[in-house]
Amino acid sequence: MTFAGRVAIVSAASREIGAAIATTLAARGCAIVATHYGEAGRADALAARIRADGGRVVVCEADLRQVAAHQRLVELALGQFGRLDILVANAGVTVAAPFLETTEEHWDLVADLNLKGAFFAAQAAARAFVAQQQGGRIIFSSSVTGVVACPGLAAYGVTKAALRHLAATLGGELGRHGITVNAIGIGATLNERNLAGQPDYQAEWDALVPTGRVGVPQDVADAVAFLCTPQAAMVNGHTMMIDGGWSQRGVLP
Fold first, then answer.
1. What is the DSSP string of 84-153?
2. Reported pTM
3. Closest by alpha carbon to 184, among 232, 238, 147?
4. How many domains does the structure of the chain reveal?
């Protein structure tokens, strides 16, 4: 399925999951506005890969905790490419701390980026979609921790659960404009952060995931791409779990 002529904002594109999403959409013809925060080298390398494959991309550093940043990204997309069709609100941060030790600073960090950031990213994109009168797709990066209670991740899990509800609410509210809103429930996934904190991460999760393997960033990217296709036009207000069925068992390492 080609996305030629379409334009997407992909936040946190400098990280593995965001990069996989950006390159997958670009490979299908979508122009990309790729955001990063303090990772210019990684973002520029991503852009170079996309351009080498014939894609169109612009890179922008943005602090997505700031409401005004989201409108600037929309304006960048419109200014560079003339339209906006897809928002992938992928930026997020994890703070792992026991509940009794979670501070106000911990809470503010995860809530401001994971939830507030996604909320106002969706608002800015939806306003552009409504003005264009051609519909649009909004996809939130949620998590299995928004479905399964995980010790030490209370603040993080609450924000990811809220994104599931936000997708459901906005799907109902914006559907009449031809805008679909969904979330991706990301499960255990191989990436630098997880491997650095847990060297045996892959082996442990391969044993726990019902399909027999831990996820990879491309699994998430493929799900996002599907939600952007015409075949997914009636998928709205849902959370698609990309976890190999783990959330049906919820067994932790």
1. --EEEE---------GGG--HHHHHHHIIIIIIIHHHHHHHHHHHHHHHTS-EEEEEEEEGGGTS--TT-
2. 0.96
3. 238
4. 1
Per-residue pLDDT tens over the stretch 30-66: 999 999 999 999 999 999 999 999 999 999 999 999 9
15, part of any domain: yes
Among 2, 251, 25, 188, CA closest to 10: 25
Domain annotation covers residue 2: no
Within 8 A by CB and 6+ apart from 185, the residues are 142, 143, 144, 146, 147, 164, 239, 240, 241, 242, 243, 247
Within the chain, strands assigned E span 7-10, 31-36, 57-61, 86-89, 136-143, 179-186, 239-242
CATH assignment at residue 75: 3.40.50.720
> pLDDT tens-digit profile of 133-142?
999 999 999 9
Active-site residue, 37 included? no
Pairing of strands 57-61, 31-36: parallel
- Let me know if residue 168 belongs to a domain: yes
Active-site residue identified among 37, 119, 156, 246? 156
Question: Is 236 within the bounds of a domain?
Answer: yes
Please provide the average confidence, as pLDDT, over all residues in the chain. Answer: 96
* Domain membership of residue 190 as a residue range: 7-248
